[in-house]
Amino acid sequence: MTMRAPLLIDTDPGVDDALAILMAHQHAEVKGLAIAAGNVGLRHTVNNALKLVDVMGHETPVFPGCATPLVLDAADAAFVHGADGFGDTGYSRSTRAAANEHAALAISRLSREFAGQLTVVALGPLTNLALALRLDPELPRRVARLVIMGGAVNGRGNTHLVPAEFNIGFDPEAAHVVFSNWPTFDLVDWEATMHHGLAYDDLEQWLAADDERARFYASVSRRTRSWARQHGRQRMLSADALAMAVALDPSIIVESAERHVGIELAGGLTRGATVVDWEQRMARPANARIVLGVEQGKFENLIRDALGAA
Ligand code: BDR
Ligand code: CA
Questions:
Q1: pLDDT digits (tens, 9 = 90+) for 278-309
Q2: Is residue 21 in contact with ligand 1, taking CB distance under 6 Å?
Q3: Alpha-carbon dihedral sign for residues 219, 223, 224, 225
Q4: Is 122 helix (H, G, I), strand (E, B) or coil?
Q5: Does any ligand 1 atom lie closer than 6 A to the CB of residue 74?
Q6: Could you tell me if 261 and 184 are in contact, meaning their C-beta atoms sit under 8 angstroms apart?
Q7: Domain 6-306 belongs to what topology?
Q8: Alpha-carbon span 222 to 82, nearest angstrom
Q9: Ligand 1 atom nearest to CA at 77
Q10: 48 lines ligand 1 (CB under 6 A)
Q11: Is 159 close to ligand 1, i.e. is its CB under 6 Å away?
């Protein structure tokens, strides 16, 4: 059962971020979009967020955040999402302005305004959240729930460093700050994403809905849908949509495991890996509820609703 709970989304839109943001506005009270660089540079991720707010007809504030990872530069994912992060469709730019408050400060402020109620959903590199934590170490006490899309819990990542997933691999130091200071969070990783793909035919049917959101998402996702087919993916994978489904409706989780998860910072082949203490040998308390499976039907219903498809 989904609720109209207050939600704050930290994100780097990004095609699958866009779908997650549509889902959130359908089912929750979205208090803000905190924007990071990741899939593409910050100028584009901010513009894409502003455009989405227009398409949805909402007034959600957009808070620009960190333009680079905390320590080392990292490669973006424009080869998947397009140079502008939204499939290079040439959409007309939004005329609305971004908020004049840094994303990290907005995260801290909103956690005070909605103390004990706010769910934070992190769909991009964790740079803004790490900075917010350093500025405001009491932040986790005021946040009701944190859901992170990131990691590859058995080492099957999706970047050139084999075990690293993109969001963690883009800014491992930020992930380390969050994973080692946030007492407990839900983790939706790349491997769960691979188990919960969407059939292309179903998705195309939903995208044919007579709804502005479906038309816009059909347009910006065209490139990634064809990229996925060309790369032999049997189904369309949408990591951020899966994480958002878990945030909106925790009852869809059918399998999970609570374990300690750390971040590898230094490995030559493993920088950015999420290292899970599966056998619980480290005697460290579990920080993550790792989502291993969800009810596919409920996940798909949340997407359909957000696209206005029957
Ligand atoms: C994650 O990386 C990005 O490309 C997607 O938006 C998602 O957040 C998946 O690894
Ligand atoms: Ca993302």
A1: 999 998 999 999 999 999 999 999 999 999 99
A2: no
A3: positive
A4: strand
A5: no
A6: no
A7: Inosine-uridine Nucleoside N-ribohydrolase; Chain A (3.90.245)
A8: 10
A9: 4
A10: no
A11: no
Looking at residue 160, its pLDDT comes to 85
pLDDT along the chain (310 residues), means of 10: 79 97 97 98 98 97 98 93 95 97 98 98 98 98 98 95 94 98 98 98 97 98 95 96 98 98 94 97 95 98 96
Q: Which residue has the tokens 């989904």?
A: 2
For residues 265 and 249, give the distance between their C-alpha atoms in angstroms, rounded to a whole number.
32
Is 191 close to ligand 1, i.e. is its CB under 6 Å away? no
**Of the candidates 242, 278, 275, the residue with the CA atom closest to the CA atom of residue 258:** 278
Q: Is 86 in the pocket of ligand 1 (CB under 6 A)?
A: no
CA–CA distance, 128 with 84 (Å, rounded to integer): 21
Which residue, judged by its Cα, is nearest atom 2 of ligand 1?
Answer: 166
Please state, as a whole number, how many other Cβ atoms lie within 10 Å of the Cβ of residue 308: 16
- What pTM does this model have? 0.97
Q: How many CA atoms lie within 13 A of 82 on its CB side?
A: 23
State in Å: Cα 281 to ligand 1 middle: 30
CA angle 28-10-238, nearest 5°?
75
Question: How far, in Å, is the centroid of ligand 1 from the Cα of 40?
Answer: 11
Q: Is 25 helix (H, G, I), strand (E, B) or coil?
A: helix
User: Is the distance from CB of 71 to CB of 45 less than 8 angstroms?
Assistant: no
Partner residues linked to 130 by β-bridges: none
